[in-house]
């Protein structure tokens, strides 16, 4: 199987060269609990590209958690901070995999930021039942924590089932 080993090495070198010459940013988006971080890490490992979780980048940069930002400053202030970190990642001159926050690309300003970039956006369309199992009570998720499954269901219907982003992503307008 020496040919297979040689072929795999050539593939790896070719992929690295293409990535250096033509940097690509892949943004994974979808509802909270859709698997953006999990799939992002897997995709990064498979492509040998760096992985950035936007929520983690915000928490590291701001030196506090997202729920803390929400409780101190509110959602509007958080979205402003989120957009700042989104812009920073999209200015990267290297290829990377970026997991956005669940509501990141629903904000009109964030949508403009992404549209003005060359990033490839992949929408993870996850069924509500699966999301309900994954997020549980919503610990660490300020939009739903301690508000019950009905709140999550309403958000899902509002932000995914009938949302602009869902339509745009499914129709690949990014």
Describe the structure.
This protein is α/β, with parallel strands linked by helices. It has helices at 2-21, 36-47, 54-62, 66-73, 75-90, 108-115, 128-135, 148-161, 164-170; strands spanning 25-29, 51-53, 96-99, 120-123.
Brief descriptors of the model:
single chain, 174 residues, alpha/beta, 9 helices, globular
- What is the string of helix and strand elements? HEHEHHHEHEHHH
**Cα-atom Rg, whole angstroms?**
18 Å
Shape category: globular
Report the total helices.
Answer: 9
> Could you estimate the helical fraction of the residues in percent?
55-70%
Sheet with the most strands, sense and barrel status: 4 strands, parallel
| N-C termini distance | 42 Å
Oligomeric organization of the protein chains? single chain
Poorly predicted segments: 162-174
Number of strands: 4
The helix-and-strand class reads alpha/beta
List strands and helices in order, with pairings.
Layout lengths: L1 H20 L3 E5 L6 H12 L3 E3 H9 L3 H8 L1 H16 L5 E4 L8 H8 L4 E4 L4 H8 L12 H14 L2 H7 L4
Parallel strand pairs: 1-3, 1-4, 2-3
Helix pairs in contact: 3-5, 4-5, 5-6
């Amino acid at each position: 199987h020496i040919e297979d080993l040689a072929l795999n090495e050539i593939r790896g070198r070719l992929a690295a060269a293409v990535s250096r010459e033509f940097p690509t940013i892949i943004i994974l988006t979808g509802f909270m609990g859709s698997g953006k971080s999990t799939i992002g890490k897997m995709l990064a490992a498979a492509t040998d590209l760096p992985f950035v979780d936007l929520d983690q980048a915000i928490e590291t940069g701001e030196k506090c958690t997202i729920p803390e930002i929400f409780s101190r400053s509110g959602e509007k202030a958080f979205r402003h901070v989120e957009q700042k970190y989104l812009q920073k990642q999209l200015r990267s001159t290297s290829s990377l995999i970026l997991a956005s926050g669940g509501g990141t690309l629903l904000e009109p300003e964030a949508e403009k930021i992404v549209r003005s970039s060359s990033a490839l956006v992949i929408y993870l369309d996850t069924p509500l039942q699966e999301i309900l199992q994954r997020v549980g009570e919503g610990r660490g998720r300020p939009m739903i924590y301690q508000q019950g499954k009905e709140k999550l269901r309403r958000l899902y219907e509002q932000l995914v089932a009938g949302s602009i982003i869902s339509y745009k992503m499914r129709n690949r307008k990014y």
